[in-house]
Amino acid sequence: MKRLSCVFGLTAMLALSAALACAQGQARGTAKLELNGQTVSVEYGRPALNGRTVQQLIGELKPGDFWRLGSNKSTTFSTGLDLAFGDVTVPKGEYSLWARREAGGGWSLVFNKQHGQWGTQHDPAQDLAATPLTEAKADKSAEQVTISLEKEGSGGGIIIQWGEMVLATKFAPK
Predict the structure, then answer these.
(1) Is 63 domain-assigned?
(2) Which end of the chain is more exposed for a tag (fewer CB within 10 A), N or C?
(3) Domain residue limits at 154
(4) 16 assigned to some structural domain
């Protein structure tokens, strides 16, 4: 009877663990790039469209509103070296990433000094810097949010895709 009780307890704990993992939502994604011997990375939640459009999900954001660039825990950007995004410098460190809707329908990528918080807890007082994002239409739709880091010359680029929307910016070592 004692053995049966242990088996039941172990089974219940495994089931509870699986249920908690499912409750956390979508999988997390990671993108990494090596620059000058240092790592630049992004870790983010991957929500899915599930039959909806990006317009239905984030298209109603007004100028000044933020999109958390993923789901669940905030998107984390880490860099082992100072980076220049145009004339904006982002010092080495860890940040949460946000997309801010701008007047005229454009987007900016915002680096926030807080990271690890729940993705809906954006504190604008902690914003370090923002840089413009270009928007384009993808050739092929992405069901889940996908963030990639790509090598470009001596620097790199951040590419964010969801559905047919592609947001991008470039950076270089400082």
Answers:
(1) yes
(2) N
(3) 27-173
(4) no
**What is the C-alpha to C-alpha distance for residues 40 and 83, in angstroms, rounded to an integer?**
10
Residue 61 backbone class (left: φ over 0; alpha: ψ -120 to 50; beta: rest): beta
How many domains in the chain? 1
Rounded-to-integer distance, Cα 154 and Cα 28, Å: 28
Helical H segments across the chain, by residue range: 2-23, 54-58
In a domain, 169, yes or no: yes
Least confident of 58-62, 84-88, 94-98, 159-163: 58-62
- Measure the CA–CA gap between 66 and 68, rounded to whole angstroms: 6
Tens-place pLDDT, residues 39-53:
999 999 999 999 999
Structure tokens at 8: 């039941």
pTM above 0.70, yes or no: yes
The model's pLDDT over 68-120, given as tens digits with 9 standing for 90+, comes to 999 999 999 999 999 999 999 999 999 999 999 999 999 999 999 999 888 88
- Separation between Cα atoms, residue 142 and residue 13, nearest integer Å: 35
In a domain, 12, yes or no: no
